[in-house]
Design goal:
The structure is a single chain. The chain is mainly alpha-helical. The chain is globular. The longest helix has 39 residues. The protein is built from 10 helices and no strands. The termini are far apart. Helix 1 packs parallel to helix 9 and helix 3 packs parallel to helix 8.
Length: 213
């Protein structure tokens, strides 16, 4: 019983945390919220972690049924998400640096916690598609399904806590590497985000149209 829960956790946590990569996402998070006050960023980090938990649980348990109901393939999901992530990365890569005065003036702007910070930047189409695939492999018996639910919930909760911790403390990492280092890191993270988007887009095209390269 306990071994099944541990096995489920050991399967889900490494697979999903490697895709989400909270510490790399924290750089993007700070880049998009640098104009906000520290308490606003802390609140947003908590909300993103909650939204991510809900997204992971929904993907694990009802994601396949939702896609089937609307006739959406995983390839189409990857293509759409890849386009959004690529555009977001390009926008961040070319965005001008925000100075402190402008940051304070913009602190009351639109709250982007769910879109695009949670989806597709944190729990994007790659994470969702993998979670759906892992969810479809769960046991359908009453006991195995119950144990899978416990293990999956613990894994999603641990991932959400990691996201909250990394995003909440992103400012300290940026301060540690200094202004020039932070600008380089943020531009690099934006470029990597764009590369991830292109990779997801390419994978979606290959999957959707059954291409063999």
């Amino acid at each position: 019983m306990t071994s099944y829960i541990i096995t489920t956790f050991a399967l889900l946590f490494p697979a999903l945390i490697s895709l989400i990569n909270p510490f790399a996402g924290a750089l993007v998070f700070y880049n998009m919220t640098a104009h906000r006050l520290p308490e606003d960023r802390a609140r947003m980090a908590m909300k993103i972690s909650i939204y991510s938990f809900i997204t992971l649980m929904a993907s694990l348990y009802v994601g396949a049924y939702v896609l089937q109901f609307f006739g959406i393939s995983l390839g189409a999901l990857r293509i759409a998400g890849g386009v959004v992530i690529t555009v977001t990365g390009w926008t961040l890569l070319n965005a001008p640096r925000v100075n402190a005065a402008e940051a304070a003036a913009q602190s009351g702007g639109v709250d982007p916690t769910f879109f695009p910070l949670t989806m597709p930047i944190t729990t994007g189409p790659g994470t969702i598609s993998v979670a759906i695939a892992l969810g479809t492999g769960r046991g359908h018996g009453s006991e195995s399904g119950y144990l899978f639910f416990i293990g999956a919930t613990l894994a999603a909760l641990a991932i959400s806590v990691s996201i909250w911790f990394a995003y909440k403390n992103a400012e300290y990492g940026i301060r540690f590497i200094g202004p020039n280092g932070s600008n380089i890191a943020l531009r690099l993270s934006a470029f990597l985000l764009m590369c991830i988007g292109v990779d997801i887009l390419a994978g979606g095209i290959i999957d959707r149209f059954s291409l063999h390269l």
